[in-house]
Predict the structure.
Amino acid sequence: MMSDITEKSSEISGFHKLSVDEKLSAIKDFAGLDEEDLETLKKTGRLGLDVATRMIENVVGTFEFPFGVATNFKINGKDYLIPMVIEEPSVVAAASYAAKLARPNGFEAETDEPVMIGQAQIVDIPDMEKAKRGIDERKEALIELARKQDSMLERFGGGPRGIEVREIETDAGRMLIIHLLVDVRDAMGANAVNTMVEKISPLLEEITGGKVRLRIISNLATKRLARAKAVWKKDVLGEDVIEGIIQAYNFAVKDPYRCTTHNKGVMNGIDAVTIATGNDFRAVEAGMHSYAAIDGYKPITMYEKDGEGNLVGSIELPIAVGTIGGCTRTNPVAKVSLKMLGVKTAQELAGVMASVGLAQNFAALRALATEGIQRGHLKLHATNLAIVGGASGEMAERVAQRMIEEGNISASRAEQLVKEMGE
């Protein structure tokens, strides 16, 4: 039997030049979308198409996530409301609860200076030792050349801070890797650092006699670490819960399968704040996992008891985020998030994020060590199904509770219960 499906091509000439409506029309023909589908794509929230089309290419719409607010956070003696953008149930509530249990002292946070690493890869070097000596002798010239590329950064107290040289052996031969260290102040720093590394590359080639290939910022921001610490009292948690959390932590220390999920739980909190503030969550994720794997993949949090038997939790990871530039200013919701937080610097924002990550991880371990993680998830999932089935408010909660009691949490059962309870 011959197919009546016509072969379609995704090679659409001049697609990037089309208007949004024209792009949608082309997508409709290719994917068989109907008018309702197109209307869904056309609906935008606070991020309008005029802004979205300046942010990325080939825009046909925007995509919304829930925007929640975590409460109870006190960090370095200051109270914060935490904006969190995430689709996963229980995360915002868990962070709020963990912060409440940590009060009245709350979290202590500290951060390194906002120094990023720009890398230049030099290959085909005729004399490696001579090249390294040459770079060492010309460090000041390289730094001065980089400094000239961003006078604005200099005025705000930032700029190049140093040069590091690393030699690595690869299957493609020996390479010299130059690290340009740049204090980027309240920016994430990618544009400034990339520009500087590109500008010093010709001088690097002149000094080494080699060829510069890659010139790019590193997302493993080991010079830009954020740390946070909190104490959860024994009389609040109970000795058995504390023991369970410490055992769960030690499980993650020795088992990479568990450790991956352990660290993912940390990033549930950090990513949510990163997205809410218009920062690059992919860069923060990559940096965290790389940092966790430097000496064999390990948790980025740590738990132990103090002399009184209280639980002490701490976290350390690179967090390269900004309060200026990029989406932090172009996305109107990100601007509101930063205003809500009231942070004055990128370093303060990183400290807040580290605290939220620690709170999130603590909450997950506490749940896992006691009633299990699914209790809160199932309730929210059941409630969501009830709402999709047509319930709202108190009825949605009743339908959700009924499904949980029955052990039948499904869309069909939700619709059936909504109909029964509504009659």
Summary: DSSP finds 18 helices and ten strands in the chain. The chain has four domains: 15-55, 67-110+224-372, 115-217, 375-422.
